[in-house]
Each structure stands twice: as C-alpha cells, then as structure tokens.
Design brief:
Layout (H helix, E strand, L loop, with lengths): L2 E4 L6 E5 L4 H18 L4 H17 L1 H12 L3 H25 L3 E2 L10 E6 L3 E5 L7 H13 L2 E5 L5 H13 L7 E3 L7 H6 L3 E7 L2 H13 L3 E5 L4 E5 L5 H13 L9 E7 H15 L20 H16 L3 E4 L13 E4 L16 E7 L2 H9 L3 E2 L2 E4 L3 H10 L6 E2 L14 E2 L2 E2 L4 H6 L3 E6 L2
Parallel strand pairs: 5-6, 5-8, 6-7, 8-9, 10-11, 10-16, 11-14, 13-14, 16-17
Antiparallel strand pairs: 1-2, 3-4, 4-20, 9-19, 12-13, 15-18
Helix pairs in contact: 2-4, 2-5, 3-4, 3-6, 4-5, 9-10
C-alpha cells in the first residue's frame, strides 16, 4: 500500500511517502505511551488550551488547510473551507465543555451517604484512529479533540491517498503546543495494523470506513479485547410525504446527494417518494441537478467535484453497470469533463424490489429513487436495508415527522433537510453502519475508564 498524493482532477502524482517499518512503529508506540504518563496528569485547562490554540491556527490558516483537501481528494474549495470551519467548532466545543463533561458524578447508593460514591472518568492510554479520505480533517478531529481533552493520546493511520492531510494534522497539534507523541501520524502498512492493535499501550480503536474494513478492525479489536467504535457505510433514506414542500425537498435532495461528489457516509442515497408527489419531485430533482457545474475543484464556480481517485470512479461505474443489469434505469443529469475522475450526477429508477441494488451503497453522485404507495410503504422501504446511519423526513407536520423518525431503524434522523452534524450532536449508526458514538460526551467517554470510587 503506497501513501501518495495523486491529484484527482489532473491525475498527477505529486508526492509519495514510504510506509513505516516495524521498528518505527514500535518506537512511536513507546514514545506515545511515555508521553501519555505526562499528558494524562496535565490539568484539563492545559489540555484544552492546546485544543484552543489548534482552533486558532486552523482559523488563521484556513485557506492553506483547505487547499490541501482540494489537492489530495478533490473537494471543492467552498466545501474544503467549510470542513476546516467545522473542525474549529469541534475543537472549541471541547475547550468549553470538557471540564463539565468529565466532572465526577455522585451516585445515590443504598447504605452510603450522598457523597460517598463517585463515578469518575480516567484516561486509559493510546487511542488508535483509522480514518478515511472523504473528510480528511473532520474525521480526525472528531476523534482527536475529545480524546486529547480527556487525557488520552492518539495514533493516526489515515487513508493512503491523503498523506499530506494526515501530516498537517500532526503538525497542527505540535504547533498548538502538544508534546511530541500526544498526536502521532503513522504511514502504517496494512500488515502492521494488528501489531498496533495488539500493543498493550493501545486501549481503544476508532474506525470510520467501509463495512469490510469495519469487520476486519472489529475482529482484531475483539481478538485483543480492545474497546472499539465503528462508523461505517450508509444508504440513508430520504422520505418525501404528500404534504412536503416539494421544491425545498428537491433542492435538499440534490445538495445531499451531490455534496462532496456524493462521497459521504451519511448523505442521502435512497429517495423514497410517495406516489402522489413522485412525478413532481422527479421533475424538480432533474431541474436542480442540471444546475450543477462540474470542473476544477479549485475554481470557485465548480459545484460538482471529481471523485477522489481513479479507483473510486471505476467502482462507481461498475456498481451502476451492475444495477442496470438487474433491470434498473439510469439517467445522467449533467455532462462532465473528460479529464479527472468525474462521474455525472445521475438518477436510478425502476429498481427491482429485493434486488442487490437495494443494498448497494454507491459512493458517488448517484441517486436511487423509489416510488412508495403511501407513508407506511415508505417506512417499509426505508427499513428494508442492512444499513442504518442516518435518514430524512420531509413533511410540513413536524410532530408527525418526529413520530415517523422513531419508526426508522437508523442512528439519526433529520426533518426537512438532508443531514445534520455538529460538535454537540451524537453521531453513530446501527446494523451494518457500525456501533458506538463519536462527538459530545458519549464520544468523549467511549475510551475512558469509568471508575466507581466508594468512601467508607
């Protein structure tokens, strides 16, 4: 596995990086474990001061960090800048809230006084983060910020096509004042992954990635009795009911399916529209998608980016061909440049019920459209899927939408928008979309030792 920067728009290989040797990995583990003994005893204010400084650096150097996202994985500049801003918000959230989130809690226990039993949160060691290329900073920061604030240290194995983004994350925390080893970037070869997880210094594993990668990491974490969180793929249902604002739904649908060139785990992928408004929704979706502007992701006018790699493009092409072979129809909605890893925004209809297509996550700007007889049928179609990361409901009746949300077998549901995220929103899935939560106090405490202390 080669770590290399290959520009998704030009195809040019800009820089390559050697993978770490076993000796280098062992040295990094030793260094991280040694500094953990110091970092865990730093006051919370000192640890969060580093996060605050990191946020300020990202703000001041937002364009530099954003440009690397565009160079390495093809993200359009406005989305790249937005990703940096989200990272700033996450860092500052933990600066403000960590002390309260980690405050010991009194437990009222029979036979003891009101202040005799405490529940405390203690750091445990190295957290091994295995992260993907689609949000090269956000995916790292959402794990690193709470864990560093809590007193753990982080070792990163990033995707092989974003090595310079990974290096920038390590540089960020060093410049912010974190001692060397508190946050370590490793260009780790696959064959040393188990070696890292097996280390007694590693106390938890956080992965965001594919279902296949999640199964491998979960099995290794289980084998070596390590805590783990998995955020995997998704085929989010986007339900449009008869009383919805169809124009708004269509605008959100196009935005939700084509953002980041459709390469988002929690993006809307299956559009389930009740029969009464199906034709109107399709008409408006086509019109909105036709407004997309494919092109150089560094050009401010571009609104549809290339896919992250030639491999990603080939995979989407094969998935679409397989789905069409199963009887579905494909409609391409925009023309894309011949250069670069572009795939056009597309609409798949007439998908045979029960076919493999209904269980195929496409990581590209391809919408799967389903006609539901009514609301109950829409809920049935939404739940007939192995994934359960997110979902959306469009209707003018908010209270009814909330009732429907409770019937969807998924980790999070948004109403009248495509998806939502933020530093204070718990993020996690069910079924094949993973387990465990990241962000807010759930993610903060995932890899801590929740210890009961009893007086008397």
């Amino acid at each position: 596995m080669a770590y290399a920067t290959v520009n998704p728009y030009t195809g040019e290989t800009l820089k390559t990086f050697p993978t770490a040797t076993r000796e280098e990995v062992d040295a990094a583990l030793e260094a991280a474990h040694a500094i953990f003994g110091v970092w865990k005893n730093e006051p919370i204010e000192e640890r969060t001061f580093v996060l605050d400084k990191a946020a300020s650096i990202l703000e001041a150097e937002r364009n530099e960090y954003a440009e690397m996202l565009t160079t390495e994985m093809g993200k359009i500049m406005s989305e790249a800048q937005a990703e940096v801003s989200v990272c700033v918000a996450i860092l500052r959230y933990y600066v403000e809230h960590t002390k309260d989130l980690l405050r010991p809690r009194m437990l009222l226990t029979q036979g003891f006084g009101e202040t005799d039993v405490h529940l405390v949160n203690d750091p445990t060691g190295i957290i091994f983060a295995v992260e993907p290329w689609n949000f090269p900073y956000y995916q790292v920061i959402r794990v690193a910020a709470p864990q560093l604030a809590a007193g753990n240290v982080v070792m990163l194995k990033h995707a092989s096509n974003v090595p310079q983004c990974a290096a920038l994350m390590e540089r960020l925390f060093l410049e912010a004042g974190a001692p060397k080893g508190v946050f370590t970037n490793l260009y780790l070869p696959h064959d040393l992954t188990e070696h890292v997880i097996a280390s007694p210094y590693v106390r938890g594993v956080a992965l965001t990635g594919s279902e296949k990668a999640g199964a491998i990491i979960a099995s290794l974490a289980g084998k070596h009795l390590k805590k783990s969180t998995l955020e995997l793929g998704g085929m989010d249902a986007f339900i449009v009911l008869e009383d919805a604002d169809i124009q708004s739904a269509a605008e959100w649908a196009v935005r939700g399916r084509n953002r980041n060139a459709g390469q988002v785990c929690v993006s809307s992928k299956r559009f389930i529209v009740v029969d009464a408004v199906y034709d109107e929704f399709v008409k408006r979706y086509r019109a909105e998608a036709a407004k997309l502007v494919p092109g150089d992701p560094a050009d401010p006018k571009t609104t549809l980016a290339p896919l992250s790699s030639a491999t990603a493009k080939r995979q989407v092409e094969q998935q679409v061909a397989d789905i069409v072979a199963q009887g579905a129809k494909i409609e391409y909605l925009v023309d894309v440049p011949k250069e670069g890893n572009f795939f056009p925004s597309a609409l798949i209809t007439d998908i045979p019920e029960g076919s493999e297509a209904t269980r195929t996550e496409i990581f590209g700007p391809v919408a799967q459209l389903y006609r539901a007889k009514d609301e109950a049928d829409a809920i049935r179609i939404a739940n007939d899927c192995p994934y359960g990361l997110g979902g959306s409901v469009f209707t003018t009746d908010i209270h009814h939408a909330q009732e429907i949300a409770r019937q969807l077998d998924t980790g999070m549901v948004t109403i009248n928008r495509a998806s939502a995220s933020g530093p204070d929103i718990p993020f996690g899935g069910v079924k094949n979309s993973g387990y465990g939560h990241e962000l807010i106090d759930l993610g903060l405490k995932e890899f801590l030792n929740q210890k009961v202390v009893i007086n008397g």
